[in-house]
Amino acid sequence: MSRTKASLLLILVFMARGTSFLFSKSLLRDLSPMSILAVRFVMSFTILAVLFHKKLFHSDSKCIRHGMMLGLLYSICMAFEMYGLRFVDTGVSALIENMAIILVPLYVAALTRSLPKARTMAFAFLAIIGVGFLSVDQIRNDGNGLGILLVILAAMTYAVCILYTERISHDSDPLSIGIIQLGTMGLISLSASFFTGGLGMPQNGEQWGMMLILVLLCSCFGFAFQPLGQKYLPAESAAVLTVVNPLTASVLGVLAAGERLTVLKLCGYVIILSVLVLYNIHSYPHKTKT
Predict the structure, then answer these.
(1) pLDDT 10s digits, 82-121
(2) b (16+ CB within 10 A) / e for 118-146
(3) Gap between the Cα atoms of 138 and 155, Å rounded
């Protein structure tokens, strides 16, 4: 697969993932976070395991190990995201979480014991200012900053997921890794649901419709095919493309969910989206050279 096709695949993946914030937020009115994750990922794994059972059957121990580890990391990330989403708007959650675009190069610098580029630090500083505007807006309107903290933790974990995915996608079959990842997430979420109020199921057609969108579009496609796209791109290039995710979630939050667009929120949106776009323009061409 060429890098152009891999980039297009990841753009579609992140758009699909961006819609998940809206449907998850709607389901949270009646279901617990872990119940939503359990049903979503168990169903997603079952569908993909049936479709690709031959490929999955021939997975080696390294592929299984990588898939399970990635599933564990994403389970932590998704738990932070879902519990944070109970307190903050969908667009705010998506924007903060996708600051992973800035965290990835900072993590790389820490791992290589080198100083981050001045440009990266400047973008990170601007992103923090944007998060500050969003935090003040959410705390002022909802009286609770816990959601902001949880989503920041989701962003920190998501950056680790991106780096780990880039590391393992070259060693094993990426689709098999993605399927095993979903199975691991389903098992962890299902187990956790019994310790957080019990497993709840969608109760009507509307809820099942939203759940099926989460299963088919956001998980079967969104999660399972991300390792395939990342196999042909470096981690920082993949992180750059995540700008599509919060943009999709923010637009849907305002247009479909009727979320308020206050002055503070608008300032935060403009700053963070500008950071993501500018980082994209300045970083992507350089980082995708062969």
Answers:
(1) 999 988 888 888 888 877 777 888 888 888 888 777 877 8
(2) eebeebbebbeebbebbbbbbbeeeeeee
(3) 17
Beta carbons of 148 and 134 less than 8 angstroms apart: yes
**Amino acid at site 46:** T
Do the Cβ atoms of 179 and 52 come closer than 8 Å?
A: yes
Which position has the higher pLDDT, 281 or 4? Answer: 4
Check residue 202 and report its DSSP letter: -
- Taking CA atoms, 101 is separated from 25, 173, 235, 240, in Å, by 23, 25, 10, 6
- Distance, in Å, from the CA atom of 265 to the CA atom of 143, rounded to the nearest integer, reads 15
Question: From CA 179, how far away is CA 277, in angstroms rounded?
Answer: 31
9's CB contacts (< 8 A; 6+ apart) are 1, 225, 228, 229
Contact 186, 45 (CB under 8 A): yes
For the question of whether the overall pTM of this predicted structure is more than 0.85, the answer is no
Handedness of CA 196, 141, 90, 151 (dihedral sign): negative
d(CA 14, CA 263): 27
Pair of tokens at residue 145: 């900053």
Other Cβ atoms less than 10 A from the Cβ of 19: the count is 20
Query: Do the Cβ atoms of 97 and 81 come closer than 8 Å?
Result: yes
CB–CB of 67/184 below 8 Å?
yes
At 282, list the tokens. Answer: 């300045």
The 10s digit of each residue's pLDDT in 258-270 is 777 778 878 887 8
**Token duo for residue 170:** 């070259």
The CA distance from 28 to 153, in Å, is 20
Give the contacts of 64 (CB within 8 A, at least 6 positions apart).
180
